[in-house]
Design goal:
The two termini are 27 Å apart. It contains 5 helices and 7 strands; from the N terminus they run αβαβαβαβαβββ. The chain is α/β, with parallel strands linked by helices and 201 residues long. 41% of the residues are buried. Strands 3-2-1-4-5-7-6 form a 7-stranded mixed beta sheet, sandwiched between helices. 24% of the residues lie in helices and 24% in strands. The chain is globular.
């Protein structure tokens, strides 16, 4: 696994041993960041279920000013910090919170924290034909606090498995969908009164 673009392109990143972490594949990352384009430069970024931090590190490499990573596992968070060191970024560009994602989102929603990009590629859910998904991806969409963290015209990029059929609340508008093998990456904007809508170039 490596950083695919920007000033730290081709830097190889560490991945924890075992099956507890499923890093976003390089080809999927490239497709996501090709779609985001210039939106990443100068952005404030929040990564949920950060794991190795690959998405945040990609953002910083491509010009994001700061990334906040939420990762529940202290072991995985340590690997994330090592990857940050490998990439050679300035210390102030990364903040890691070792915490449950939904607890962290709730706490940050009470503050003035706002992000231009929220990235989440959580553990995959099970196949759910005939019933509503209970996956982490579905919980992200259902969390009423998440939209409060988005800056006006901010973007949520959410990954999930093809077998996991999500129910999209009316408060979210899907503007793009990328598919690669079993991976789906979907781009959403909040449609509530506090956020404007824009197109993804």
């Amino acid at each position: 696994m490596r950083i695919t673009g920007g000033k730290a392109a081709r830097r190889i990143l560490k991945v924890p041993k075992g099956l507890a972490v499923r890093p976003t594949p390089d080809l999927v990352k490239q497709a996501v960041f090709n779609s985001l384009g210039a939106r990443v430069a100068g952005a404030q970024v929040l990564e949920l279920f950060a794991g190795t931090g690959a998405l945040s590190l990609e953002c910083i490499s491509r010009g994001a000013v700061r990334a906040v990573c939420i990762e529940k596992s202290s072991r995985h968070a340590e690997v994330l910090r090592k990857n940050f060191g490998i990439a050679g970024f300035a210390p102030e560009t990364l903040h890691v919170r070792v915490q449950d994602v939904f607890t962290a989102v709730s706490q940050m929603a009470e503050s003035s924290a706002r992000f231009d990009l929220i990235l989440a590629d959580p553990p995959y859910g099970e196949k759910n034909i005939g019933r509503r998904s209970t996956s982490c991806a579905q919980q992200v969409l259902d969390d009423p606090n998440l939209a409060q963290l988005l800056a006006p015209e901010g973007l949520l990029v959410l990954g999930h498995a093809k077998r996991d059929t999500l129910t999209v609340p009316k408060t979210w508008r899907e503007i793009k969908c990328l598919k690669h093998g079993d991976s789906i990456m979907r781009f959403f904007q909040f449609t509530g009164p506090s956020n404007g809508a824009s197109s993804l170039v």
